[in-house]
Structure formats: C-alpha cells, structure tokens
Amino acid sequence: MGRFLRIALILAVILMLVSTTVGMAENTGGKPPVYATLKVEATSTPITYTVAGSVISDGRIELSSRVVGFIQQLDVREGQKVARGDLLVRIDPTDIDQAIRQARAGVQASEEDLQDAEHEVEMYGTLVGTNSVSKETFRKAKVRRDIARVTLDKAQSALAAAEAQKNYASITSPVDGVVVSVARRTGEMATTGATLLTVESREVLLFKAYVSESNLSAIDPEKPVSVRIDTLKDAAFRGRIRGIVPSGDDVTRRYEINVVLPADPRLVPGMFGRADIVFGMRQALMVPRAAIVTRGGLQGAFVLDGTVARFRWLRTGRTIEDRVEVVAGLSDGERIVSAANDTLWDGSEIRVAESAR
Amino acid sequence: MTDPRLNFAGRLAQTFITSKLTIVFIVAVALLGVMAILQTPREENPQITMPAAVVTVTLPGASSAEVEELVVMPLEAIVNEIPGVDHVESTALNSVGLVQVQFKVGQEKEASLIKLYDRVLASRSSLPADAGTPAVQSVDADDVPIVTFTLASDRYDDYALARVAERMADRLRSTENISVVSVKGGRDRQIAIELDPDRLQAFGVTLGQAYAAFSASNLSLPLQSTVRDGKVEAIKLSASFTSADDVRNQIIAVSEGRPVYVRDVATVTDGPDAEVTTLSRFSFGRGDARFGKAHSADLPAVTIAIAKKKGTNAVVVANAAIDRVERMQAAFVPKDIQVVVTRNDGQKADDAVNQLLEHLLIALATVGLVLVLFLGWREATIVMVTVPLILSLTLLTNYLGGVTINRVTLYALILALGLLVDAAIVVIENIHRHYRSKRAMKNKIAATVNATNEIGNATNLATFAVMLVFISLLLALTGMPRLYFFPVAVTVPTAMAASILVAYIVVPWAANRWLSHHAVRDIDEHDAAHHGAPGRVEKLYLRLFAPLQQRRCVRIGFALAIAVLMIGSVLQGAWQFVRPEGVGGAVSSLGVPIGFLPKDNKNTFNIVVSMPETTPVEVTDGLVRKIAVLLSQDRNIVNYQTWIGEAGVADFNGLFKGTAGRSGSHVAEIRVNLTDKHARSASSIDIVRDLRPRIDGLLTAYPGAEVSLVEDPPGPPLRATVSAELYGPDPEGLRRLSGEVREAFSATYDVVDLTDTEPVDVPEHRLIPDKEKAALSKVSTAQVAQALSLVYGGADLSRAHPADERNPVTVRAFVPRRFAVDPTRLDRIFVDNTDGKAVPLSELVSSVPAFADRPILHRDNEKVTFVGAELADSVPLYAVLDIKKRLDGMTAPDGRPLGMGNLGFAERKPDTIDGYQLLWGGEMRMTLNAYRDLTVALSGALLTVYFLLVAYYRSFLIPMIVMSAVPLGIIGIFPGHWLLGADFSATSMIGIIALSGVVVRNSLLIIDFIQDNLKQGLPLEVAVRQAGAVRLRPILLTTFAIILGSAIMVTDPVFGGLAISLIFGTAVSTVLTVFVVPILYDLNARRKRRPAGGEAPECAKA
Predict the structure, then answer these.
(1) CA separation (Å) from B1078 to B611, B714, B995, B1003?
(2) Domains in chain B, please, with CATH?
(3) Cβ of A327: how many Cβ atoms within 10 Å?
C-alpha cells in the first residue's frame, strides 16, 4: 500500500512538472512581447526665453585688518571652506598688550586716587560738624573726589579700548563660505584697509545673465525662472528674479538680470547655465525621451496600429527636462510605445501592458 | 533573251527563273535577315526624340514677380527666336528663373541644344547685370536609366550602402555602351559642426568669428620649390583638416585670454548627415520569397541607376550590367546586402520583342495552315518560304534605315504578314492555272514567266495601293504620334515592296523547280472546286447572288439593310455625344468609347505623392508608410521602393509628366514592381483600380495630399490625361480660376488623381534688418546675413581632406534641431560689431509674418496654371466635353466670360488679349491631333488610290465602285470593338486606313475579272456572276490570311484596336463586297447600255 502511494505521488509530481513546463513554453513562445504604451496628448508647454549666463555668489566678503601690524598667523588657503567664527588671521598683538597694561596701570592709579579722595571727604565731613575745618576745605575735598571718580572712569574706558584692539588682531570668518583668494602671507605687514583675503558666502548664489532689450518688457519678475546647469546634466533649479539692473548697454542693447538660486551644494559660482524665462504657454506634443528611438538612421517612435507597432519618423524639437517636443509626425490621441527597445521593429506585433490601458 | 513585251514582273521572273543568282539571293537575304535581327537595337517602344532643355538663371534676392519680368520674359523672347521650338514653359521662383524649352518632336538633339546655347549666351546682355550666367541643361530621354539595382539591407544603413554602391558604380562605368551610372539615395559623409548658440554666447564667440576661423584654417597649397644640396625639393603648405579631431581642436577665438576650441562650443561628428531630408526604403512584397524574412519590412536602400548610350541595344547593355553586378556580388559585396534589379528595360524590351516574335511565328503558322487548306502542300510551302525572305528584307531595310526592333515594328510586321503573302499567292495561283494548260508543258519556263507577267500589273497596282495608304500615314502624322507610329508607316510599305520582289524572283523559280504538271493535276483532283466547277461555297454564293441581281426590291432591301447597319455601327461610336443624358457618366451599354490609346497591363506602376508645400518630410513619410502597409498586403507585388523628399529614379513617363525632378519635404514616390504579368491573373490596371480607393481612404487624415497612381502609358507619355491650361493676366485670378476648374473636374464622372500647379501658401518669416539700428550698433547687413545663414540651413565651410576618401567630405557648420532658434526671437544669435562687442540679432532684425513668394508659371509666354486629372476607366474625350459643359458660361475673374479653346482639330496658341482663357491639353489634345492627322491620312490615301485607279481603269465611276468596299468595312468596326469590349483608339483608326488598302484590293480583283470575262465575250450578267464566284476563293483566302494573321494582335492594348478594325472590317467588307461590287458594276454597265431606260419592274413580279 505504501509503495503504491509512493509511485502515485511520484507520477503526480512528474505530471505536474510536465504540465507546468508545457504551460511555460506556451507562455514564452506564442505571445507577442508586452510594451507599455501611452497616449500622446498636447500638453501646455511653456514658451521660454532662454538666456545663458553664469552662477555668481551674492556674498563676497573682502577681509582687511583694522589694526596695523605684522601678520602673525594666516593658515587658510584658497578654496578652503570656513565656518562662521573660524579664526582666519592673527595680527601680532604685542603693541596692543602693552597698551592694555598701560591702561590697566592708569586705572589702578585712578582707583587709588579715588580711594584717597573719598577718605578725605569722609574725614572732613565729620570735622565740618565740629567746625574744625572750614566749609571751604570740605567743598574742595568733594571736588577732588569727583574728579578722581571721572579719572577712573576715563582710565577704565582706555583699558576697554586697549582690550578691544586685541579682538581686531584676530580675524574670524563672518560667514560660512570659501576662501577664494589670499592676498598676504604670514609675516607681512597688515595695513589698515588693505585686503588680506576674500571669503565667498555659499548662503546665497545668484545667476547672472543678460537679456536683450526687446524681451525686457515681457519678463514678469514674479514668475519663477528655471535655471539649467550644463555640467550638472541639465539639472534644473527654480529661481526667482531678484532684479533687473535698469541700465543697459547702448551698443549691445542688453540688460543684466539676477536670479536668486536655491541653496544646493552642487552649485558652484562660475558654472555655465541657461535660464528659461517663461513668456507664456502653448500647446505642444511632448513625449518621454525613452519613447524616441532610432531606426535606419531616423529618429522616431512606435505608433500603435491595432496590435501592431508601426515605426513613425518624427521631427523632434527642443528638449524640456526629460521630455522631447514632437514638432511633426504625431497627432493628438495616437498611442505610442513609451519605452521601446532594440527588439522592437516596424510591424512587430505587441501586447499593451495592462496598466497603460 | 529579254522580251521587250515583258513588264517589270515578267522581266524579274525571266532573269531569275533559272539563274544560280536566285539561290545566292535566297541565302544572302536569309543571312542578312538573321544578322539584322541580331544587330538591330531592341527597345520596348520606339525612340521618341523630343529635345528639351532647361535654362536656369539666378537673380539672388529677387521676388518671383521680379524674376518673371527681368529674367523669364527676356529669356522667353530669346528662346522664341530659335526655329524648331514647340513650347516654352517657364517658372519664376524667388531668386531663380527656369525656362524649359521644348523643341518640336523629331528635331535633332545636338543641333537644337547648340542653337539654344548660342542664342542664350549671346543674349546675356539682355538680362540684369546681377543675374547669374544662364545654365543650359538638356532634359534627355537617353539619360533615363534602363537598369536600376537597389541595394537594401537590414544590417547596414544607407550610408554604408551608398559606399558599397559607389564602389559598384565605379566598376560598372567601363561597361560598353553605358552612359550615365549614378547612385541615388544614401547620405554623404560629412564633418558636421553642430553649433550651440548658447555656448557660443557664453564663451563670447559670435557666429561671424566661427565662420572666419573655419574658412581661414583649412588651407593647403603648393609653394615654389627650393634647391638644397644640389637637388630640387618641393615645398607644400599643409594645413587641411584631415579628420573630425582636427576640426574639434581648432581654436576659434580667444576669450579673456583663454583659447576657445571648437569642441567647447560645438559637437563635431564625422559620418552621415544626422538631419535626414531625403531617404529611400526598399521592401519585398508578398510576391517575393524574401518577404517577411528581415526584421523589418522596410530596409534602407540605395539605388544604382544605369543609362545607355543612344542607339545601342538596351537588352545587351542591361545584360552586361547585370552580369557585372552578379560578379561583384560574388567578389566583394557583403552577403547580407540584397542586390535587387528593380528596373530592367532591357528585359522588358526583350520580353516584348520575344513575345512578339513568338506571335509572329504563330501568325505565320496560322496563315500557313490557311494556305495549305486552300492551295495544297506544295504551293503553300513555296509561299511560306517567301515569308521569311520578305521579313528578312524588311528587317534589313529597317536596320539600315535606323529603325529599331520594338513593339511597333513587330506589330507592323504582324500586320504586314496578312498582306505580304498576297503577292506570292497571286503569282503562284496564276502559275498553277497556266500549268494546267497543255501548252505549258512544252515550255515550262516560258509559261511560268508568262504567268508572272500576266498578273504583274494588277498585283503591282494592288500592292502599290496598300503601300500608298501606309505612306500617307508617314506624310500626315505629326508630333509624337508620328514618331510612335513611324515604324508602321515604314515597315509595312517596305514589307509590301519586298513581297513583290520576292514574289517575282523566288516564286517563279521555285514553281519552275518543284511544281510539276503532275502535281498540279493531283491537286486539281483533290480540290475539284479550284477553278471551273463550282464548289459548295460558290454554289451558296450564286444562290444568294441571283435574287440580288434579278430583283430590284431585294436590292433595295439589301441597300437599306446596309444603310441601317452602317448607321447603327457609327452610332455606337457617336451615341455618347448625342445621347440625352449627356456626354458624362458611364458609357452606354451598346456604346464604344473613343479614346487615344488604352492602358496596358504592365509589371510596374508608380505612386506619386504630393503633399501641401507646408508638410514636413516626417509627415510625408507617415503617409508613405501607411500606403506601404497596404502594398505589403498584396500578393501580386514583388517589391516596392519608396523615395521620400525627392522623386525616384527618373523614368520616361515621369520626365514628360514633370514629376521626375521634384524634390522637397512634401514630395514622395513609391515604385511598385509586380509579379510578371504572365504569372498573375489580375492585370496592373485591376490592381491599381483596387488600390486607389484604399489609398483615398488614408487621405482623409492628410488634407490637401495628392496621391496619383501612375501606370506607364502604352504609347507616348503625357503630362496628364485630362489637362486644362488656364491662361490669364493675373496670378491671383488664375489661382481662383484654378480652384473653380478643379471643382468642375472633381464633379466629373471617373476623374481620379486630380492635380493642380497652385501651391498652398507657405508661411514665411520675413527677417528685415533695421539698417539704422545696425549701423548704430556698428554691424553690417552682410554680417547679419552670414550669421542667419549659419543658423538656418548651415553653411558648407570648406572641404576636409581625410585619407582614403574618394568623395568630397564637406565641413558643415549648422545649428542642429535640438537648439533650433525661433525665427520670431533671434535673441540667442549674436554678431560682433567692429568694437568686438556681441550684439543679439533680435535687436537688429525684426520678423514680419508673411507668405512665401508663389512661383509664377508661364507657357508660351503667357501666365498659366494647370489643372490635370487621370481617368480610372474611361476616355478623356467624354470627360473633357462634360467638364466643358460645366464650365461653359463661367465668368472669369475679370468679369468677362472664360474663353475656351483647343477642342477643335487645329491647335491654338494661348492668347490673353480677350481675358482669361482655358485651353485643353494632355491626352485630349493628342487624341484630337492624332485623329486629325489620321483623317487626313485616310482621305489622302483614298484620294491617291482613287486617282491611281482612275489612271488604271480610265474611268471615274469604276474606281468609285471599287472603293465602295471601304465604307462597307465601317459596319464591322464598331460592333467589333463592342464585342471585344475594346475602346476605339488611334490604332483602330490606323486599322481603318489599312483596311481601306486591303478591301480595295479585293474589289479590284473582282472588277479585273469581270472585265476579263467581258473581254472573253461573256454576257454581262454571266460575267459579273462568274467573276464573283471565281474570285470568291482567292478573296476568302486573302481575307482569312489577314484575319488569322492579325488575330494574335487583338489582345494587345495598343494594337488591339488596329487588329479589331482590320479583322471585323475586312470580314464584313469582304462578305458584302462580293455582292455589292458585282451588283454595282452590273448596274453601272446596264445604265450605260440603256441610258434612257429605267429598271424593269422586277419587283412587281415578285
């Protein structure tokens, strides 16, 4: 009985295997391949005015010393990233220290003097009651005490000023940014107003371009501008027009325009890019870039004709992001294969992926 | 030995009857005949020399109206001074004027062209100073390729195919008698500099700088040699571009101290042009075993087209080319490139000629069979031996006279076959008759000569009449039909002349050798009814003849019957014109349409696609692909090749239709090759008829698209079947008129493939530089133009010199489509001013929307526009008359009635003094011309024959009786066409002319015999009856020979009409002639005898 059962089991397994393989063979061999399709529809596409320009930085800070003195320490190099508050330059502080000490001594002397004057006033005050000193003497003692108080105040502020000088001797970065140029080296003399180094802020980047006079009136500063950077594979950044410099070149008839770019670590000032300024909208047939294939040296797409894919030569126009405009060859409402591969040929029978229906 | 009494026939017979020369003559003629067959060039159709040339003059920047006034009209005046010019058609386009000069048909090509060159170049001063030098280019039918090979592959693209094709073409050029070998299709190698306007702008480089840099840095030149170390050494400056890398690394500007390379601002590629404007594809149809084998039905294709030299044998040239291509395929052509012969006119000609030679043999055999039945073996053999000799002589004469072997020549031979046995039959019959007499046995030679001599004059006369009839064709025909039918007009008379010669030389000699008295006796016993005792047919004839001769009312009844039949027959042809429902619409059930030449069953047809001028090439391609899907479903199609953006390989028909040279994004063509016509049941006419509505169904998605299915015409090609030429003073008015006429066309029955020459308006962006602003910005207009030319279309900067390259490689700079610049906003294009600052073009140029200049067409010095159409199934005459009715009374745009003309027999030249005018052209005009000429030929022939007979009979009336046989033939003609479902065509008309020659001969023989009988003293009544009965057999024999000889032609579309006219006309005419002619003679003779007396009241008795 057990043997019989085992044989039956084995037979059943074999039967199942055979039937499944047969079924699989039918599935893979007979039916045409499945492709995703999409219906071509005219979508409203912006009419853009494209201007080329470069990314510039808005915060460009030239650091210079307020104090005169030899540069004791200047360790940053061009291209180095710095954070707000990082020490950049230290000027030799010897002179300042001396001045502080001198001021401090002045303060001490004034304090002593004040103490003495106050003591005198106290003493003369009790004596005046007994008329041992004249009222005049008491008055003079009070004047001397007030003067000593003012002198101390003066000495204290001189000390504060001397101590403040010390702060100017060490220059810290005012922004998060990059050191773009270093003009002096350690040991050189820092003079007042002379640039020591330049730091560029990464906080606000601008896109600077020139627009021609004829397009000036059509630009709406309220509308966002898309800026594509070539080196970043046409990555688009949404920017906002900050301003149009209202003074043009009378020969080339161009006006400078500044677009504020969003903060993005990939953006670096000096990058070449194109700003697409939207003038209006129009209806255009846009298809995904993947739908466009080359057959026999022609660019086109596969158009669905019943269950047959027919190659159609297309005139493509400009590319906007990952979609290509079809200038001629397709009409509204036709269904195309949205991503064709090399096995698809003109006249191939295909099945449409269910999701696309 | 020469007897002075002998005539031409007798003398020839006497000279050759015993001479050894006869054998020499026979052998020589036979050999020369074989040589002629092998040597004479073979063609499908006769060569039609119609010299034409196009004079092109450029006038840069001028509008089409300016070009018309300043270039076209002076040129037309110059061309009109040249004698031999038939028509002048001109087109004034923006910046260019084209004048096509059409010389009269048959004018010498070289002489005409030299005259044209001479006049045009001498009159250079009458053109504006800034006009270019006139370029004269001949439009040559000889340069039409006879063989085309298409290279197609699913592995190689057209660029690779073109390179293989170039190599193959090089190897083909040395083939004997090949003239032009061209490679059509395939993109050329070029170094493309795809400029990016934005990058240029970013690098501060302007287009002008780029342009200057490219052209200044590609230089190579030999310098003066130097002497060093006692040797002369050459010096060469070598700074050419040799590769794309050279171009890529070229510095085009220095911006802010940094060099800017080409690679920084452009993408440089080396290879085929990526922006395709023309292309060709090839597909196998279901009729080919290779259908469905490739990945895709459409394979990229390149075509090698081969033309032959004038006057050489198409068959030989084609075969030599095919042989070379096959050897090349084995030697170096990659195996996965399909090399398909897509056109082989040599094969076509050879097939046509061989088929006709076969038909000729069949006809010969049938005639032989008739002869055997009527004459007996020996006589039949002798007659049949003469036939090849006559044909040999004819072909030899043709060869020497430069007439090629073509369909028309061979049809002429088949036609002549029925006629040329006649002379030999008459001679042998008379010899036969003489041999029966005892006297002949004494001197056989003398009897033979005598017998030949006896019938000499009558035979000469009869033959001469036939010759005259055909020669009249030669004199009366004009234009293209003359060249087309020229072989008929030459070959038939030649064959007739040769037939007399051979009948007088060979037949007596052969009779003398092989025809013994004995044999004659045997035959007489076998065939008792030959002479004397009447046989069954003669008895029947006499029984029918008697009442006619004796009773007046029977005669009247007979005459009435003939009259009714004749009216009926003519009505079959004329009914359509007089019927109450009008001339348009389907042909009435009993009617016979009257046309020019019917369509033929061909192995190929052409689909000509013409979209509105604003159509981009991709959309044109879309329609073509949809048509191709329809084509791929037809089992009868072997292959088809599509051409998009340009016309296909020119063919003779396209050259005349004006579709051969077209190009532009709205143009396409599909050449469809069908399976061999013997291997399919459907004719090409059926296939086209089925296809047409299905293609029309596709056109709803393409408004304004015109698709014509062009079948090669059987005869001479024409612009259109129905063509209306509209002349008028004002282009706008013509345009409106064209629309109205087109409307009338489309409302007409059976009209298909409507075309007109009015293009749709093409929107234009007119870029107008603001000169003041430009000057203030320090930019010149020339700089603006240079920059714009780079942006739109690009510029060929120079030529690169890569190693191992056989074709010129151009360096082309352009702005690719992905950076396309909107012409309404030119802000991305910069030019640099004299200060070196970049100025955007948008500030200097304003774009004004307008429409492109419309071309202005002229024909014969008048502004013209054409409306043309084809007819699916009917003949142009009816359609034209129908349209005319619709247009009658129409007011032209100037308020005056529209003049209409060219429907008469005389062709009119355009003249717009009285306002707008419509002249009918196309097949209609040629039909009228041909019918006019043929009518003239017929009347001329009849008149000449009449005068000949007057001279022969010395009577005015008897020739009339003789010629009464001609109108009798009409009775058979139209019913014959109706029975076989054929159109009455120009060849039917030629058939009538041939018919008149043949039937005159019949009645001539009857009358000759009556007069003979009368001379022998027989009474009139008996003489008449007897003559009819005795001549019945020979007449029937001749008639059967003609009918069976031409029967093989009936199926041919072109010469079918001729055969039908001849067969039915001769049959009916013969049957009636044997009664009518004797009776008329009888009546005439009786009237003479009893000048006063009327007829006896025989009718009353009956």
Answers:
(1) 67, 42, 20, 9
(2) 1-39+376-527 (1.20.1640.10), 52-139 (3.30.70.1430), 189-220+245-275+763-822+835-851 (3.30.2090.10), 535-581+955-1102 (1.20.1640.10), 601-712 (3.30.70.1430)
(3) 17
pLDDT band of residue B677 (cuts 50, 70, 90) is confident
ipTM above 0.95, yes or no: no
Label the pairing between strands B809-814 and B189-195: parallel
| Band of pLDDT at residue B517, cut at 50, 70 and 90 | low
| A304 closest CA partner among A100, A118, A32 | A32
A31-44+284-356 belongs to CATH 2.40.420.20: yes
Number of residues in chain A: 357
Residue B1100 scores a pLDDT above 70:
no
Smallest Cα–Cα separation from B278: which of B592, B520, B621, B749? Answer: B621
Contacts of B825 in chain A (CB under 8 A): 49, 215
Q: What's the confidence (pLDDT) of residue B1102?
A: 35
Q: Which residues of chain A have pLDDT under 50?
A: 1, 21-29, 356-357
Interchain pair A297, B158: CB under 8 A: yes
Largest CA distance in chain B: 133
Choose from B284, B302, B621, B832 for mutation: most chain A CBs within 10 A.
B621
- Which of B157, B187, B839 lies closest to A253 in CB terms? B839
- Which residue in the block uniquely carries the two structure tokens 């010469």? B1055
CB B916 within 8 A of CB B727: yes
What gap in Å lies between CA B161 and CA A259, rounded to an integer? Answer: 52
Report the first-to-last Cα separation within chain B, whole angstroms.
Answer: 61
Which of B295, B819, B842 is nearest residue A214 as measured by Cβ atoms? B842
Which residues in chain A have Cβ-Cβ distances shorter than 8 Å to B819? 318
Contact A252/B839, CB-based, under 8 Å? Answer: yes
* Residue B36 DSSP one-character state: H
Asked whether the predicted pLDDT for residue B479 surpasses 60, the reply is yes
Asked if pLDDT for residue B297 goes beyond 80, the answer is no
Confidence band for B341, pLDDT divided at 50, 70 and 90: very high
Tokens 């008839």 sit at which residue?
Answer: A253
